[in-house]
Amino acid sequence: MPRRYADNYDYSHPKNRDPYQFKPADDFFKDLVDPRFNTRQPTSIDYDDKDQEVNGVANPACKFGRIFRFDDGKFLMIQFMRPRIWRLRFNPRFGAADYSDFNTRTIVQDSLTDLVKVLDAAEGINWRVDELKRVDSRFFILQSVIIRPDGTEEIGVQLWIQRNPFRITAVRSIASAGVGVGISGLEHPILESPESIPVRDGRSNAIIWQTKERGLLYQDDAVVLNVDKFTTSKYLGFGEQGGKSLYKDKSFMNYFNFDNMRYYNIYDEGPLCDSEPLYHSEPYWIEVNTHPGYMSQLATFVDNYSQVVVDLGKTNQHQTRIGTRFNSFQGIFIAGDDVGQVIRLYTSIIGRPWLRPRYILGHHQGCYGYETQELVEYYADKYREADFPLDGMHIDVDMQRNYKTFTIDTRQGHFPNPQAMFSKLRALGIRCSTNITPVISSLEEPDFTYETYNSAWVGGGDGSNGYQDNYFVRDNRDNDPSVVPVNNERYLEYGKGTRYLQDPNVDRPDYSDAYNFAENRNSGWPFHGGVDYGGTKGSPGYYPNLNRKVVRDWWGKQYQYLFDMGLDFVWQDMTSPCMAQQYGDMKSWPFRLLLDSNGWPNDPIASEKKKAIEIWSLYSLNLHKATFKGLHLLKGREEKRNFIIGRGSFAGAQRYAGLWTGDNSSTWEFFSISVAQVLALGLSGVAFSGADVGGFEPSEDWERFADPELLIRWYGAYSLLPWFRNHYVRKGKKWFQEPFEYENYRLTNPIKPEDEVVYRAVLPVCKYTIRLRYSLMQLLYDAMFENLINGLPIARAMVITDPLDSSLFSSNEWYTAHQYLVRNDILVAPVHHPQSERATRTLYLPYPDAWYPLNLRPDTDPAQPGQALQPRVSGGTYVDFDSRIAYEESQIPYVTPMYIREGAIIPQIEVRLSTPDRTRSEQDYPNLANEPANPITIHVYPGKDNSYQMYLDDGVSRKSAPTNQWLASQEISISAETGQILQNAFGDPLAADAFREVVIKQTTVRKLDATSGNWRDLRRIEVTTPLRGGTVNSGFSDDEVTKAVGDEYRLAIWHDDDVDLNTVTIETEGFTSSFTPWTNPAGRVTLVRVPTSEKVTAIVNVSNAI
Asked: Could you give the CA distance from residue 1024 to residue 1037 in angstroms, rounded to a whole number?
């Protein structure tokens, strides 16, 4: 992938030879074989008991693993983190004693010992790592052993360490999925060895992961692990990396946080390029289909904050090369039966988020260019006038006073009365966030006191007592000895595929900044940087040292003023931190700037300083952590759930924030990857993510608004994805992107006749889409609640929901990236092509279940809660769906194809313009606190047996989150192999189980009617509130439930089109109701109402002749 160099590029500058710089993956792997880089490759490995000790005492890190010695004197540590999770650690600079028990900040506990202890208790598991076995002179075996409750034992994973040539092979016993086609490689000597795993229950032993022989290479700092790439294997996940497909192959990948606007700055290929480094780094992927027809999948996670590079079969189709540029190589490998189980295991070690407020699942509007209070209020009013639901308004840095973080510009013509503005919007049901960047402006204003800036100089308010005590990152650098004089420094940048250098001695942003680089450089004074928002917009400033806990605590307190004014949540931007390119490398820190390493307490290397490039993504992780923890300590927020939407960080940040995928543009290419990005992040443990709907930047400089057809398709695609924010830029670029503005434009401007339909359709189609979303808000919320329990994402790739459909790994790969399910049973098939190409959308319905076209509508009569079911369609079927854009009501529901799985149970509510918050003061917000109850209709579809867990609570308080005790009581995924109960062991400490779980079950049996002699189908629907601790105690009282949803649930029991409704009978048990059950022949639906009381177990039997 050749890149261009700027015309005036200085090829002679030492910067070109500095090893401490970003290196694209293709260049890195090419240099790996260059003799100049002194790459070493150990041949053999051995073991010595003395290496397991530190000063004669057993190293606690070896409790779950062992340290091995290579023939060149370097050391490798292999550990089990869980029975089916193992970790390889290698640092060429480490001796044996340097391998400690401490984890990185990514892992949810500070040490492996603590992690095992906490997770074992939460998951109810007993396991151990056996003593190392020696198999003749060729192998060592390290294995995990699970001890079942009955005392019997089984091997989890067996690691065979081949001594010469060095190689590691992972073996596991795997079960058939019922459609097995055989496992290749069963003749392998390891599998035939008497030391291999005992075969049981019809299972088969298989090699699930294997390094190449002599598969570890290293340079002074960089490390590469070469892993076998099996012929049938497919790879997906990879975090937010874009590209043409959810599956990736024959590609180079770069993980390096980068302010990569438009996704084209390294390779100039745009959003369809896999290789571009993006805002967020999640070096994690899942290998599937290695053993077709068998229950075996494997994930890889590279826990390293510097640059991670991957060669996924690009140079050798039988090999994956995984490289880390600096620090320890830490590769974590996770074995599971299916993709969902792998995700649950992965999120158990990197963590899951606390329960988030319900309103974040709503519709949000953001704009860089809502420059005044008047404009913000105007657009809030316009949404309400249009009867268009809206829950969130995102105000950019326009609200700040001259780009001063944590301020509001209260001057006339700006935001003169922010408290009144926030109060007005909140009364409309609209919550507000604002853009917070990690820079503290250094521009002085004689008539303004910048409290945040002043409080950062803890030594004396203005720095008069010296800089030793301030909270800023200091300008201390590790000098490149080849740069003479030392201030003859250059910063490396990339733009649209061109590499160029910036001279910080002379180059400045377009705004005024007269600082002297040579004087500031390496002075120990605060590092001087600044943000650039284009043109003259931006400010120089200093950066809080968020790699120190005391500074993180200070940072969290800075939000108090904004939340006192009425802010409800936070938009975390420029997180890398992103800077004007004149201040640092790759629009961020200078690579050689020294930063605190932020080790764990008592970690022997906790106080080390490292070059910024060595811990590149750690700062953003700590930024999100500081904000998250700080919000929970603010006065008035102690018991409220908080939310942050952040732009980029590292794996583990999902504990603190949701993720939006950076600055995209209004193109079909960006739209085409935007769904796959959310699915890939969900596979990677990030349950809450999304792109800027409609596109942030214009597609071309002359474009003044997003293509109306593109906006319609984007709204449809995101209709049931977790994060939905229409977000765009004005500032002389776009005029508008709010859906109702397209109708205003049509009425006041000449429109081509061929474009009339699509312009007229924008408002009704987008409005319908959002109203449908709001009617299914309970479904979205249940999926978000469930994420706490099992780690599964809200929007799920079909490989999660339909693991038995092997075609999703082969012939139907494309559909895996371009369709998704919310929870398990509603399938959405976005239209990713312009209508001029074709007016239909071919979709695939996964096997083996049958499917129905979506019959739900957002605004219905309780007597007719949807359309009659169309004929069911068999799984494994392709459907050409008429998805024409139109403004007629009859076609609008079909603009975005959607299907419902047979046997589905789907809750639906009435559409409100915002998500209620009944915890608000009745005096201040009577319309919010006293909003009428919103009844729930529970739709039950014919077909297979099914159950559904619904969660009712107040939607905003922390007390309503589940406690660890409740989570540990839920046997949500007991693996037949291990007996693990995979739970979140790190929940909210203020959680108090103040919610109600409602379980709806449907079973269908076929019985012979003794009276008539005919066969009948009997559908039994049960609605119950499960017992807690042997008593009925939901934590969300009957009074609270009645206030929220009423005193009855409405059951809508749908019938297939071939059922004779004259033969339908209805019987109820366990309750009484003033509503008489009946079957609506026009809608082909039986309607029943059952009490919401926790004391009632309601049973409805619906029978029909066949």
From this structure: 14
Q: Give the residue ranges of DSSP H helices in 794-865.
A: 798-801, 813-818
pTM, to two decimals: 0.96
φ, ψ at 298 (rounded to 5°): -145, 135
The answer to whether 596 and 508 are in contact (CB under 8 A) is no
Say if CB 1041 and CB 1073 are below 8 A apart: no
Task: Report yes or no: 225 and 215 within 8 Å, Cβ to Cβ.
Answer: yes
Q: Lowest-confidence range among 400-409, 674-683, 936-945, 981-990? A: 981-990
Q: Which residues does residue 431 pair with via DSSP β-bridges, in sequence order? A: 392
Rounded CA gap, 225 and 938, in Å? 51
Please state whether 5 falls in left (phi above 0), alpha (psi between -120 and 50) or beta: beta
Give per-residue pLDDT as tens, 306-321.
999 999 999 999 999 9
C-alpha span between 389 and 740 (Å, rounded): 12
Q: Are 949 and 786 in contact (CB under 8 A)?
A: yes
Place of tokens 């590691």: 168
pLDDT at 414: 98
At 563 the three-state DSSP class reads: helix
If DSSP codes are grouped into helix, strand and coil, which group holds residue 775? Answer: helix
State the Cα angle at 725 between 792 and 537, rounded to 5°.
Answer: 125
With residue 565 as reference, give the H or E element that holds it. Answer: helix 560-565
* Beta bridge pairs of residue 1066: 1102
CA gyration radius for the chain? Answer: 29
How many CB atoms are closer than 10 A to CB 926? 12
All residues at 6 or more sequence positions from 514 whose CB lies less than 8 Å from its CB, including other chains? none
Alpha-carbon distance of 674 to 661, in angstroms, equals 9
pLDDT one-digit tens code per residue, 916-963? 988 877 766 766 667 899 999 999 999 999 999 999 999 999 999 998
Distance CA(220)–CA(1038), nearest Å, equals 65
In Å, how far are 117, 223, 405, 963 from 989, measured between CA atoms?
18, 39, 30, 8
Nearest CA to 687 out of 765, 810, 784, 615 is that of 784
Cα(1071)–Cα(1103) distance, rounded to whole angstroms? 19
What contacts 152, CB < 8 A, 6 or more positions away?
A: none
Please state the φ and ψ torsions of residue 1014, each to the nearest 5 degrees.
-105, 155
Contact 61, 100 (CB under 8 A): yes
1022 has pLDDT over 90 = yes
Question: Any idea what the Cα angle at residue 659 is, between residues 348 and 685, rounded to 5°?
Answer: 20
From 740, 720, 743, 728, select the one nearest 665 (Cα to Cα).
Answer: 728
Is 123 within 8 Å of 982 (Cβ atoms)?
Answer: yes
Q: Per-residue DSSP letters for 201-270? A: TT-EEEEEEEEEEEEEEE-SS-EEEEEE--TT-EEEE-TT---S-SB--SEEEEE-----GGG-TTTS-G
* Residue 771 structure tokens: 């109203």
CA angle, residues 724, 634, 430, in degrees to nearest 5: 30
Whole-number Å distance between alpha carbons of 110 and 102 = 6
Q: Which residues make Cβ contacts (< 8 Å) with residue 420, sequence separation at least 6?
A: none
Show Cβ contacts of residue 923 under 8 Å, excluding neighbours closer than 6 positions: none
Q: Is 333 helix (H, G, I), strand (E, B) or coil?
A: strand
Please tell me the total number of residues recorded for the chain in this structure: 1106
H or E, element range at 31: helix 25-32
Please compute, for residue 469, the number of CA atoms within 13 A of its CA located in the half-sphere on the CB side: 12
SS3 901: strand
Structure letter (DSSP) for residue 959:
G
* Whole-angstrom distance, CA of residue 368 vs CA of residue 573: 12
Alpha-carbon distance 505 to 583, whole Å? 10
Beta carbons within 8 Å of 112's beta carbon, 6+ residues apart: 61, 63, 64, 79, 81, 101, 102, 103
Return the number of other C-beta atoms located less than 10 Å from residue 517's C-beta. 18
